[in-house]
Specification:
Blueprint (H helix, E strand, L loop, with lengths): L23 H13 L46 H22 L5 H16 L5 H23 L2 H8 L1 H20 L7 H29 L5 H22 L11 H6 L2 H10 L7 H7 L3 H12 L5 H15 L6 H6 L1 H18 L3 H6 L1 H7 L5 H26 L1 H24 L7 H18 L4 H9 L5 H30 L3 H19 L8 H19 L15
Length: about 575
């Protein structure tokens, strides 16, 4: 693997051995083939050339951080994919798969679990449970998952800095094991409290996963593959949802006898992750920039890149560390107070809102009832079909994200979802009068899901990690993740009431929100494709400094070092 402009650069094969006899050998081949088509003419681990397009425009007020015209650069070769990189990404996203599994697993066995709740209540109180209490217990069983995610997402920054990215994900599996055991044994223990507590713990696990996995994957990925590899978090999540939907069928595990096994299977990805993580390196950026362990960072880089000379990557990290050392330690409070972080934080939060308030969870939470309203005789299979489309178009996004760019795909996704929401509304309004509308409504739902996975599904998770340098990144991931989980909870709790009040017009609310998110993305969100972390952060620093001098010319930003206040 030869780097451009480095005639003497050579690779010794460190970390490039292929795991041909192990299960992830095929995953390596598939990922390498996929990502080969996504590569572009940008630096791999090192900084981009001085004066690169897009960054110069940041000096101009109102100019985008990265010009759309830079996407016209012809593709060139980049660093190869090593087995260590594939293994590390695959192991990390097992947590994402488990998160998706627990999002989807609760829907199919709803009636069976409610019957178990009734039997438990009858055994305790010698009377059948009333409908209001049963509804409350079930709603709590579903919603407590999001509450756990909300709480734990605030801890992403603290945990990732204290334990490190890799160790934090390893220890986080304790929550998965405990939560899975409680849910799997809830029937045997005749306890709906065990079920609810297990859902809370698995939600807390998922909240940490939603921050730790994109952070780790983003930090170990070469710049030109960061988008494609970042998409794998969302891909694993939707595959987890699809697996849960399939396993929840009546012919498999969605039975009165086997539903505890269906819920308890959540421990399987955690067990596999614990076996595989010892073979994965820690994030080199964390080791060097946060822990100042240069030798361990170099060793990690050599394993990830397969090259003996990692001086270029180390130079980039040294520059980022130098800038970080001039900044104060960034807490969540300082993230909101410091001007240079306000714009990227606003972008990060709004992108997370665009994911959860798009209406996608309303589709999946209530897809079965929507398909029933559309006149489908076997709605559960249509729901599984929507899950399959969900996974398929996430793969499409993986192919496109390094070609079209993050901003473009997000705009296409939001625009397509908005059109599908309007079509879905029209179809549901005229469903009783025009028989063909049942098919149109299903096509609109499938289109809605497909456009979601092109942009709003995968992009908000990893673009948050791209918008911030090493110092503020953990706090930013915590804030963004908390916003995501909070909106998830709100939509899950409020949608049924909204649907009852608005009827078939409920998706017009989401169409209006999608229009707002489209306009925000068009005017405010920069393209980060091909930019190093430090380049993106530097652009925000220059923009903030320019605005600060215009508004308060005699006041120096207290969050920046003297070199950044120019």
């Amino acid at each position: 693997m030869q780097r451009r402009g480095k005639p003497g650069h050579r690779c010794t094969g460190v970390g490039v051995q292929r795991f041909q006899c192990l299960p992830w050998g095929f995953a390596h081949l598939l990922l390498q083939t996929t990502l080969q088509r996504c590569r572009e003419g940008r630096e791999g681990w090192g900084p981009a050339p001085h004066g690169s397009p897009g960054m110069q425009g940041a000096h101009q007020q109102g100019a985008p951080l990265v010009s759309p015209q830079e996407d016209e650069v012809p593709p060139q070769a980049g660093p190869g994919i090593t087995s260590t990189l594939v293994l590390s990404v695959f192991t990390a996203v097992l947590g994402s798969l488990q998160c998706g599994y627990n999002i989807g697993v609760i829907n199919a066995p709803q009636k069976i679990i409610e019957q178990n709740y009734n039997a438990t209540w009858l055994a305790r109180h010698n009377a059948s449970i009333d409908l209001a209490t049963l509804t409350t217990l079930w709603s709590l069983s579903v919603a407590i998952f999001s509450i756990g995610g909300m709480i734990s997402s605030f801890l992403v920054g603290v945990v990732s800095e204290w334990l490190g990215r890799k160790r934090a994900m390893i220890i986080n599996n304790a929550l998965a094991f405990l939560g899975g055991a409680l849910m799997g044994l809830a029937k045997l223990g005749c306890s709906y409290e065990m079920m609810i507590l297990g859902r809370f713990l698995i939600g807390a696990y998922s909240g940490l996963v939603s921050g730790l996995v994109p952070m780790y994957v983003g930090e170990i990925s070469p710049t030109h593959l960061r988008g494609a590899l970042g998409t794998l978090h969302q891909l694993a999540l939707v595959i987890g949802i699809l697996i849960a939907q399939v396993f929840g069928l009546d012919s498999l595990l969605g039975t009165p006898e086997l539903w505890p096994l269906l819920l308890g299977l959540t421990v399987a990805p955690s067990a596999l992750q614990l076996v595989m993580f010892p073979f994965c390196p820690e994030s080199p950026r964390y080791l060097y920039i946060i822990r100042n362990k240069e030798s361990k960072a170099k060793e990690s880089l050599k394993r990830l890149t397969g090259c003996s000379d990692v001086s270029e990557a180390l130079t980039e990290m040294k520059e980022e560390k130098r800038r970080m050392d001039m900044e104060r330690k960034v807490s969540i409070t300082q993230l909101f107070r410091c001007r240079i972080y306000r714009q990227p934080l606003l972008i990060a939060v709004v992108l997370q809102l665009s994911q959860q308030l798009s209406g996608i969870n309303a589709i999946f939470y209530y897809s079965t009832s929507i398909f029933e309203s559309a006149g489908l005789e076997q709605p559960v299979f249509a729901t599984i079909g929507a899950g399959a489309i969900n996974a398929a178009f996430t793969i499409v996004s993986l192919f496109l994200v390094e070609r079209a760019g993050r901003r473009t795909l997000h705009l296409v996704g939001l625009g397509g979802m908005m059109v599908c929401a309007v079509v879905m509304t029209v179809a549901l309004v005229y469903l009783d009068r025009v028989p063909a509308m049942s098919y149109i409504s299903m096509v609109a739902i499938f289109g809605f899901v497909a456009f979601f996975e092109i942009g709003p599904g995968p992009i908000p998770w990893f673009i948050v990690a791209e918008l911030f340098s090493q110092g503020p990144r953990p706090a930013a991931m915590a804030v963004a993740g908390s916003c995501n989980w909070t909106c998830n909870f709100i939509v899950g709790m409020a949608f049924q009431s909204m649907a009852d009040a608005c009827g078939p017009y409920v998706f017009l609310i989401f169409a209006a929100l999608l229009l707002g998110f489209f306009l925000f993305t068009y005017f405010k969100v920069p393209e980060t494709r091909g930019r190093t972390f430090d380049q993106i952060a530097a652009a925000f620093r220059r923009t903030a400094s320019l605005l600060d001098h215009e508004i308060k010319p005699s006041t120096e930003l207290d969050c920046l070092g003297p070199e950044d206040n120019v």
